[in-house]
Design a protein that fits this description.
The chain is an alpha+beta fold. It contains 2 helices and 4 strands; from the N terminus they run αβββαβ.
């Protein structure tokens, strides 16, 4: 499954669960290493980095950012 298709399926699933979902696109105002998705539900929030495969390499700062965000709340890589 392509990264875009997987990302779309994850967004649909999160929204069905009642989450507010934000898709982050690289560009001005988005920090380097920012995960692809953030989601929010009453009392909790999390972050997801979507990759096309398990062998896909991290972009600069992604691994460090996911570790930091996981310490604060919940952040995972999904392939």
């Amino acid at each position: 499954m392509s990264e875009a298709k997987l990302q779309s399926e994850i967004i649909k699933w999160l929204k069905k669960k009642g989450c507010y979902v934000i898709k982050h696109n690289a560009g001005a105002g988005v920090p380097m290493g920012c995960p692809d998705l953030s989601f929010y539900l009453e009392g909790c929030y999390g972050f997801i980095e979507v990759t096309a495969s398990k062998t896909a390499k991290y972009q600069p700062l992604q691994k460090e950012t996911l570790t930091k965000l996981d310490d604060w709340s919940w952040a995972k890589r999904v392939d």
